[in-house]
Design goal:
Oligomer: single chain
Order of helices and strands: EEHHEHEHHEHEHEHHEEHHHEEHEEEH
CATH topology of the largest domain: Aspartate Aminotransferase, domain 2
CATH architecture of the largest domain: 3-Layer(aba) Sandwich
Number of domains: 2
Distance between the termini: 30 Å
Radius of gyration: 21 Å
Strand content: 15-25%
């Protein structure tokens, strides 16, 4: 099982340290104030000025012609594939990609698409792996229509696709006649960690999106960008999927605020992740993957403690995280402080020692 929810114990204490996901962030007081002041209109007919401002800013940020505000990142992926592909088409993506493992089979159920999983370490496939997966176009095989990557690679450990590799897989895909899609749920984490702009990261990708409800701290929403013709068709699917909204500027205002105030501070989350990994790696028996962004994966099996038991014991101490793909995942975000990281390491040490 890819994801195991944390155990629900009614006797457990309140959660003091929430490392479950960066989706657990709460709007800051200043963000709430921006939402309360938002100028709004009917988003469905293009009459919400705050939504329009957000879409213009994200389109510019990603170097695309247009963008559309969506309720969720999953809807960004689903709508994008529904535009890029036709029933029976084949999508190529890493075997641990969100659109394969975490979207409820929506691409098969709604689009009739086949997604071919590509292997590779740390959530990424190599250019050579992509080349080997391509096949000649014939009536015997599904048309290979779309290549998708996830930046950063969640299950891979929050790893960052290198710009050179992104450019190479785009070149290969375009040479084979495929469209390209970037699941950029944590794209800005990659940008902050590398110093490479979002525009440069998304260069060559026909569609790309960013999530505002993760490290950027907004309560809802993602923005998908691409050509004007592409976004026009995405809007058709947004309507069909029930994603068109009314006075959505209240939510979009949180995203605009996040762009202004919460991007650079992602570096703090990365620093806290490194501190957490460093502390955990000093505990005998723990195997810790060195983080590149804000995700820390580790296993305590070498200390004689199964991962699910460690998660349960931490929950009893007010620390919330979960098993993911057979490992424990801890995610730092704007509601996690350096002191919370230190506290978590202390609890893990006590559990390993049998305390």
């Amino acid at each position: 099982m890819l994801y195991t929810p944390p155990p629900r114990d009614p006797a457990a204490p309140p959660v003091r340290v929430n490392l479950l996901s960066d989706t657990q962030t709460r709007p800051t007081p200043a963000m709430r104030e921006a939402m309360a002041r938002a100028e709004v209109g009917d988003e469905q007919i293009g009459d919400d000025p705050t939504v329009n401002l957000l879409c213009e800013r994200v389109a510019d940020l990603l170097g695309k012609e247009a963008a559309v505000f969506m309720p969720s990142g999953t809807m960004c992926n689903v709508a994008a594939t529904l535009v890029h592909c036709r029933p029976g088409d084949e999508i190529l993506a890493h075997e641990s990609a969100h659109l394969i493992a975490r979207e409820g089979g929506a691409h098969a159920a709604l689009g009739g698409f086949q997604i071919t999983p590509l292997p590779g370490a740390e959530g990424q496939f190599s250019p050579d792996t992509l080349r080997k997966a391509l096949h000649p176009r014939s009536r015997y095989q599904p048309p290979q229509t779309l290549l998708s990557v996830e930046q950063t690679a969640n299950i891979g450990g929050g790893t960052i696709w290198k710009k050179g590799v992104l450019d190479e897989v785009v070149r290969i895909a375009k040479g084979a006649g495929l469209a390209t899609h970037m699941d950029g749920a944590r794209l800005l984490n990659a940008c902050v960690a590398t110093g490479i702009s979002a525009r440069d990261m998304a260069e060559g990708w026909d569609s790309a999106w960013i999530d505002f409800s993760k490290g950027l701290g907004a309560p809802i929403g993602g923005v998908l960008a691409g050509s004007r013709a592409f976004i026009d068709e995405v809007w058709r699917w947004k309507q069909r999927l029930g994603g068109s909204m009314r006075q959505a500027g209240i939510c979009a205002a949180a995203c605009v605020f996040a762009l202004d105030h919460h991007v650079d501070r992602l570096a703090e989350d990365h620093a806290n992740a490194r501190a957490l990994a460093r502390g955990l790696s000093q505990i005998a028996g723990l195997k810790v993957q060195e983080p590149e962004t804000n995700l820390v994966f580790f296993t305590p099996d070498g200390a004689g403690i199964p991962g699910d038991q460690m998660v349960a014991e931490l929950r009893k101490r007010g620390v919330l995280l979960a098993m993911m793909d057979g490992r424990i995942r801890a995610c730092t975000h704007l509601d996690v402080t350096a002191a919370m990281v230190e506290e978590t390491v202390g609890h893990v040490r006590e559990i390993v020692r049998g305390g």
